[in-house]
Amino acid sequence: MFLKKFAKDVPITISYHQNGFKQTCTGRLHKLDLVKQTLLLKDEKQQIYFIHLSGIQEID
């Protein structure tokens, strides 16, 4: 399951759909909210990406 990759403190790459577009971002997990089914990913420039778990296509 993909949650095992979040447990490690290494950068991950996530491909996901948002607003009808496929996007890809790389960073470290900032926060995981299982109630709202979202995650926040922070890249090396400290930019935070808000991603719905249902939109995730691939995690590397």
TrEMBL record:
<dbReference type="InterPro" id="IPR014962">
    <property type="entry name" value="YolD"/>
</dbReference>
<dbReference type="Pfam" id="PF08863">
    <property type="entry name" value="YolD"/>
</dbReference>
<protein>
    <submittedName>
        <fullName>YolD-like family protein</fullName>
    </submittedName>
</protein>
